[in-house]
Amino acid sequence: MTFLFSTHDPMVMAWAKRIITLKDGRIAKDDKKN
Amino acid sequence: MKENTKHIIATKDLRKIYKEDGLEVEAVRGVDLTIESGEFSAIVGPSGSGKTTFLNIISGLDTPSSGDVWLKGRLLTRLSGNELSDLRRDNIGFIFQAYNLIPVLTVEENVEYVMMLQGLPKHERHQRVLNILKQVGLKGMEKRFPPKLSGGQQQRVAIARAMVSRPALILADEPTANLDSKTGTALLQIMTSMEIPE
To answer: Which of B8, B28, B176 sits opposite A2 (nearest CB)?
Structure first.
Protein backbone atom coordinates (compact mmCIF):
# COMPACT_ATOMS: atom_id res chain seq x y z
CA MET A 1 0.00 0.00 0.00
CA THR A 2 1.19 3.51 -0.80
CA PHE A 3 0.54 6.51 1.46
CA LEU A 4 0.47 10.15 0.39
CA PHE A 5 -0.41 12.69 3.08
CA SER A 6 -0.76 16.43 2.95
CA THR A 7 0.21 17.75 6.34
CA HIS A 8 1.56 20.50 8.58
CA ASP A 9 2.20 18.00 11.37
CA PRO A 10 5.91 17.52 12.28
CA MET A 11 5.07 14.04 13.59
CA VAL A 12 3.73 12.92 10.19
CA MET A 13 6.79 14.48 8.51
CA ALA A 14 9.05 12.51 10.84
CA TRP A 15 7.20 9.34 9.90
CA ALA A 16 7.32 9.91 6.13
CA LYS A 17 10.15 8.53 4.01
CA ARG A 18 9.83 11.31 1.48
CA ILE A 19 8.94 14.97 1.99
CA ILE A 20 7.70 16.92 -1.02
CA THR A 21 7.55 20.66 -0.33
CA LEU A 22 5.16 22.75 -2.39
CA LYS A 23 5.52 26.51 -2.57
CA ASP A 24 3.37 28.77 -4.73
CA GLY A 25 2.08 25.76 -6.66
CA ARG A 26 5.54 24.40 -7.52
CA ILE A 27 7.74 21.69 -6.03
CA ALA A 28 10.32 23.62 -4.02
CA LYS A 29 12.01 20.56 -2.47
CA ASP A 30 11.79 16.79 -2.75
CA ASP A 31 13.72 15.00 0.01
CA LYS A 32 13.97 11.23 0.26
CA LYS A 33 15.19 9.79 3.56
CA ASN A 34 17.44 6.75 3.58
CA MET B 1 3.21 9.08 -23.77
CA LYS B 2 2.97 5.75 -22.00
CA GLU B 3 3.45 5.83 -18.25
CA ASN B 4 5.48 3.37 -16.21
CA THR B 5 3.04 1.19 -14.23
CA LYS B 6 5.33 0.83 -11.20
CA HIS B 7 4.35 4.42 -10.50
CA ILE B 8 1.09 4.63 -8.59
CA ILE B 9 0.88 8.31 -9.48
CA ALA B 10 2.66 10.31 -12.15
CA THR B 11 2.10 13.89 -13.22
CA LYS B 12 3.55 15.85 -16.11
CA ASP B 13 3.51 19.66 -16.21
CA LEU B 14 0.35 19.74 -14.13
CA ARG B 15 -1.33 23.15 -13.87
CA LYS B 16 -4.51 24.44 -12.29
CA ILE B 17 -5.83 27.94 -12.77
CA TYR B 18 -8.85 29.25 -10.85
CA LYS B 19 -10.78 32.39 -11.56
CA GLU B 20 -11.43 34.40 -8.43
CA ASP B 21 -13.30 37.73 -8.66
CA GLY B 22 -12.34 37.95 -12.31
CA LEU B 23 -8.66 37.34 -11.57
CA GLU B 24 -6.76 34.21 -12.55
CA VAL B 25 -5.06 32.39 -9.68
CA GLU B 26 -2.56 29.69 -10.60
CA ALA B 27 -2.80 27.17 -7.74
CA VAL B 28 -0.60 24.48 -9.33
CA ARG B 29 2.17 25.60 -11.66
CA GLY B 30 3.78 22.85 -13.68
CA VAL B 31 4.24 19.94 -11.25
CA ASP B 32 6.16 16.87 -12.43
CA LEU B 33 6.02 14.14 -9.81
CA THR B 34 6.08 10.37 -9.57
CA ILE B 35 5.06 8.32 -6.55
CA GLU B 36 6.21 4.73 -6.52
CA SER B 37 4.40 1.77 -5.08
CA GLY B 38 4.99 1.31 -1.33
CA GLU B 39 6.17 4.86 -0.61
CA PHE B 40 5.08 6.81 2.47
CA SER B 41 5.28 10.43 1.35
CA ALA B 42 4.22 13.72 2.85
CA ILE B 43 3.34 16.82 0.87
CA VAL B 44 4.08 19.88 2.95
CA GLY B 45 3.93 23.61 2.43
CA PRO B 46 2.17 26.69 3.75
CA SER B 47 -1.59 27.23 3.34
CA GLY B 48 -2.30 28.18 -0.25
CA SER B 49 0.77 26.35 -1.58
CA GLY B 50 -1.42 24.06 -3.69
CA LYS B 51 -1.36 20.89 -1.56
CA THR B 52 -5.09 20.22 -1.44
CA THR B 53 -5.61 21.23 -5.09
CA PHE B 54 -2.83 18.84 -6.09
CA LEU B 55 -4.31 15.96 -4.07
CA ASN B 56 -7.76 16.63 -5.51
CA ILE B 57 -6.40 16.53 -9.06
CA ILE B 58 -4.37 13.35 -8.70
CA SER B 59 -7.36 11.61 -7.13
CA GLY B 60 -9.67 12.71 -9.95
CA LEU B 61 -11.86 14.85 -7.68
CA ASP B 62 -10.79 17.94 -9.63
CA THR B 63 -9.53 18.37 -13.20
CA PRO B 64 -6.29 20.08 -14.22
CA SER B 65 -6.29 23.16 -16.47
CA SER B 66 -3.48 21.48 -18.41
CA GLY B 67 -0.96 18.70 -18.04
CA ASP B 68 -1.36 14.96 -17.46
CA VAL B 69 -2.05 12.67 -14.49
CA TRP B 70 -1.67 8.92 -14.50
CA LEU B 71 -3.10 6.67 -11.80
CA LYS B 72 -1.63 3.16 -12.03
CA GLY B 73 -0.59 3.90 -15.60
CA ARG B 74 -4.00 5.15 -16.75
CA LEU B 75 -4.30 8.69 -18.02
CA LEU B 76 -7.12 10.25 -16.00
CA THR B 77 -8.04 12.91 -18.53
CA ARG B 78 -8.86 10.21 -21.09
CA LEU B 79 -11.38 8.44 -18.85
CA SER B 80 -15.14 8.89 -18.86
CA GLY B 81 -16.87 9.95 -15.65
CA ASN B 82 -17.90 6.36 -14.87
CA GLU B 83 -14.44 4.94 -15.64
CA LEU B 84 -12.88 7.57 -13.39
CA SER B 85 -15.31 6.80 -10.55
CA ASP B 86 -14.57 3.07 -10.81
CA LEU B 87 -10.79 3.61 -10.94
CA ARG B 88 -10.95 5.88 -7.89
CA ARG B 89 -13.26 3.56 -5.94
CA ASP B 90 -11.04 0.53 -6.58
CA ASN B 91 -7.63 2.14 -6.10
CA ILE B 92 -7.80 5.04 -3.65
CA GLY B 93 -8.75 5.22 0.01
CA PHE B 94 -9.38 8.73 1.34
CA ILE B 95 -8.79 9.97 4.87
CA PHE B 96 -9.87 13.53 5.75
CA GLN B 97 -9.08 15.97 8.52
CA ALA B 98 -12.76 16.10 9.56
CA TYR B 99 -13.20 12.28 9.23
CA ASN B 100 -16.24 12.67 6.88
CA LEU B 101 -18.09 9.64 8.24
CA ILE B 102 -21.78 9.21 7.49
CA PRO B 103 -23.42 10.05 10.83
CA VAL B 104 -26.62 8.05 10.29
CA LEU B 105 -24.74 4.84 9.51
CA THR B 106 -23.16 2.66 12.19
CA VAL B 107 -19.40 2.16 12.39
CA GLU B 108 -19.83 -1.18 10.64
CA GLU B 109 -21.98 0.29 7.87
CA ASN B 110 -19.54 3.17 7.28
CA VAL B 111 -16.69 0.71 6.81
CA GLU B 112 -18.74 -1.69 4.69
CA TYR B 113 -20.07 0.93 2.28
CA VAL B 114 -17.31 0.96 -0.38
CA MET B 115 -17.28 -2.84 -0.52
CA MET B 116 -21.03 -2.78 -1.19
CA LEU B 117 -20.38 -0.47 -4.14
CA GLN B 118 -17.73 -2.92 -5.33
CA GLY B 119 -20.25 -5.76 -5.18
CA LEU B 120 -18.40 -7.93 -2.66
CA PRO B 121 -20.52 -10.72 -1.15
CA LYS B 122 -22.05 -10.05 2.26
CA HIS B 123 -20.07 -12.76 4.04
CA GLU B 124 -16.74 -11.41 2.82
CA ARG B 125 -17.71 -7.84 3.67
CA HIS B 126 -18.65 -8.87 7.19
CA GLN B 127 -15.39 -10.78 7.74
CA ARG B 128 -13.30 -7.88 6.45
CA VAL B 129 -15.16 -5.34 8.60
CA LEU B 130 -14.70 -7.38 11.78
CA ASN B 131 -11.02 -7.98 11.01
CA ILE B 132 -10.17 -4.37 10.26
CA LEU B 133 -12.13 -2.93 13.20
CA LYS B 134 -10.16 -5.26 15.46
CA GLN B 135 -6.90 -4.03 13.92
CA VAL B 136 -7.78 -0.36 14.48
CA GLY B 137 -8.80 -1.08 18.08
CA LEU B 138 -12.58 -0.74 17.68
CA LYS B 139 -13.67 -4.31 18.31
CA GLY B 140 -17.11 -4.30 19.95
CA MET B 141 -18.01 -0.84 18.60
CA GLU B 142 -19.51 -2.05 15.33
CA LYS B 143 -23.05 -0.88 16.14
CA ARG B 144 -22.11 2.57 17.47
CA PHE B 145 -22.83 5.75 15.52
CA PRO B 146 -20.00 8.21 14.66
CA PRO B 147 -21.38 11.20 16.62
CA LYS B 148 -21.08 9.11 19.80
CA LEU B 149 -17.35 8.49 19.25
CA SER B 150 -14.31 10.61 20.16
CA GLY B 151 -12.31 12.30 17.39
CA GLY B 152 -9.60 9.65 17.62
CA GLN B 153 -12.17 6.86 17.39
CA GLN B 154 -13.84 8.50 14.40
CA GLN B 155 -10.50 8.76 12.62
CA ARG B 156 -9.91 5.05 13.36
CA VAL B 157 -13.23 4.31 11.62
CA ALA B 158 -12.13 6.52 8.70
CA ILE B 159 -8.83 4.62 8.45
CA ALA B 160 -10.67 1.30 8.51
CA ARG B 161 -13.05 2.57 5.81
CA ALA B 162 -10.17 3.76 3.61
CA MET B 163 -8.12 0.58 3.95
CA VAL B 164 -10.73 -2.19 4.07
CA SER B 165 -11.15 -2.35 0.30
CA ARG B 166 -7.36 -2.77 -0.06
CA PRO B 167 -6.67 0.18 -2.36
CA ALA B 168 -3.25 0.71 -3.91
CA LEU B 169 -3.11 4.28 -2.60
CA ILE B 170 -4.17 5.99 0.61
CA LEU B 171 -4.57 9.75 0.23
CA ALA B 172 -4.89 11.68 3.46
CA ASP B 173 -5.49 15.41 3.73
CA GLU B 174 -4.25 16.69 7.12
CA PRO B 175 -5.39 13.47 8.85
CA THR B 176 -3.89 14.26 12.25
CA ALA B 177 -4.77 17.98 12.39
CA ASN B 178 -7.69 17.53 14.81
CA LEU B 179 -5.97 14.96 17.02
CA ASP B 180 -3.58 15.22 19.96
CA SER B 181 -0.07 13.98 19.26
CA LYS B 182 -0.49 10.72 21.21
CA THR B 183 -3.61 9.78 19.23
CA GLY B 184 -1.98 10.87 15.97
CA THR B 185 1.08 8.71 16.63
CA ALA B 186 -1.10 5.71 17.48
CA LEU B 187 -3.01 6.10 14.23
CA LEU B 188 0.18 6.37 12.15
CA GLN B 189 1.41 3.18 13.80
CA ILE B 190 -1.86 1.41 13.05
CA MET B 191 -1.86 2.46 9.40
CA THR B 192 1.70 1.48 8.64
CA SER B 193 1.63 -1.81 10.51
CA MET B 194 -1.77 -3.05 9.40
CA GLU B 195 -1.84 -6.47 7.83
CA ILE B 196 -3.90 -6.14 4.68
CA PRO B 197 -4.06 -9.23 2.45
CA GLU B 198 -3.55 -8.47 -1.26
So the answer is: B8
d(CA B145, CA B85): 27
Domains of chain B: 7-78 (3.40.50.300), 94-193 (3.40.50.300)
Question: How high is the pLDDT of residue B115?
Answer: 94
Question: For a pLDDT cut of 70, what percent of chain B falls above it?
Answer: 95
Contact A6, B172 (CB under 8 A): yes
Q: Which residues of B touch A13 (CB under 8 A)?
A: 42, 44
Segment 14-33 of chain A within 8 Å of chain B by CB: 15-28, 30
A3-17 tens-digit pLDDT: 999 999 999 999 999
Smallest Cα–Cα separation from A30: which of B11, B57, B120?
A: B11
Q: How many residues does chain A have?
A: 34
Residue B28: is its pLDDT beyond 70? Answer: yes
What ipTM score was computed for the predicted complex, to two decimals?
A: 0.96
Enter the pTM of the model.
0.90
Contact between residue B160 and residue B132 where contact means Cβ atoms under 8 Å apart: yes
CA B77 to mean position of chain CA atoms: 19
Q: Which of B163, B95, B36, B182 is nearest to A18 (CA)?
A: B36
